[in-house]
Amino acid sequence: MDKFPLTFAIIKPHVVSNPVAFQRLQSIISDNKFEVIRSKQVKLTEPILAEFYGEHRDKFFYNRLITFMRSGETQALILHKIDAITSWRNLMGPTKVFKTLYSHPESLRGQFGLSDTRNACHGSDSVASVEKEVKIFFPDFNIHDWCTTSEFQAK
Ligand code: RTP
Ligand code: MG
Q1: Ligand nearest to the CA of 89
Q2: Is residue 77 domain-resident?
Q3: Residue 100 has pLDDT above 80, yes or no
Q4: pLDDT (tens digit, 9 = 90+) per residue, 107-135?
Q5: Which of 32, 45, 53, 155 has its CA 20 to 30 A from that of 68?
Q6: Residue ID of nearest Cα to ligand 1 atom 20
Q7: Which ranges does the record mark as transmembrane (predicted)?
Q8: Active site residue ranges
Q9: What is the pLDDT of residues 49-88, one digit of tens each?
């Protein structure tokens, strides 16, 4: 769907464990007019991460990524904004730390990223991945029902 109104995000462990950075990042989320629809702190396990990052299973960074994502609490979020997937990925900035530092220093990854792996946050890259990822983290949340509620229609 064009301009899909929801996305799924994760704030990664090194941000959640730093109260000042965590608070600042959450302020940037609301300053950028994202509405937090669901939010929960979660310590990820290997089986959940294997499902979540299945597409990266054969990449050289997979083990490093899984080890990092298990290293502390994360914050899982469902965010609402018109064109949420693209808006959130634009706010996050590029995956690679050298690109964030040189061309996107204001992005979330530019401000809070430490390396290609510890890059501060995750964002779904398609409607299909929003659906898959929301189901993993918020199995009781029905995207279709939410999108057809009068609350959303009125916005
Ligand atoms: P994400 O899925 O987290 O929103 O990030 P993305 O689309 O920008 O990047 P993707 O290629 O899907 O990679 C998923 C996560 O893997 C870690 N990564 N490490 N060279 C590396 O060490 C490397 N490359 C990717 C990052 O944590 C990235 O967010
Ligand atoms: Mg990705």
Answers
A1: 1
A2: yes
A3: yes
A4: 999 999 999 999 999 999 999 999 999 99
A5: 32
A6: 116
A7: none
A8: 122
A9: 999 999 999 999 999 999 999 999 999 999 999 999 999 9
Other CB atoms within a 10 A radius of the CB of residue 153 amount to 8
Query: Is residue 57 in some structural domain?
Result: yes
The answer to the question of residue 1 being in a domain is no
**Among 77, 107, 119, 137, residue to substitute to test ligand 1 (most atoms within 8 Å of Cβ):** 119
The structural domain count of the chain equals 1
- For residue 7, give the ligand nearest its CA: 1
The CATH number given to whatever domain includes residue 51 is 3.30.70.141
Q: Can you say which residues are annotated as belonging to the binding site for ATP? A: 12, 61, 89, 95, 109, 119
Contacts of 72 (CB under 8 A, 6+ apart): 13, 14, 16, 17, 43
Distance 124 CA to ligand 2 centre (A): 6
Residue with structure tokens 């064009």?
2
119 pocket-lining for ligand 1 (C-beta < 6 Å): yes
Count of residues making up the chain:
155
Determine the structural domain holding residue 134 and report its residue range. 6-153
Calculate the alpha carbon distances from 20 to 10, 25, 145 in Å. 17, 9, 35
DSSP summary character for residue 29 = H
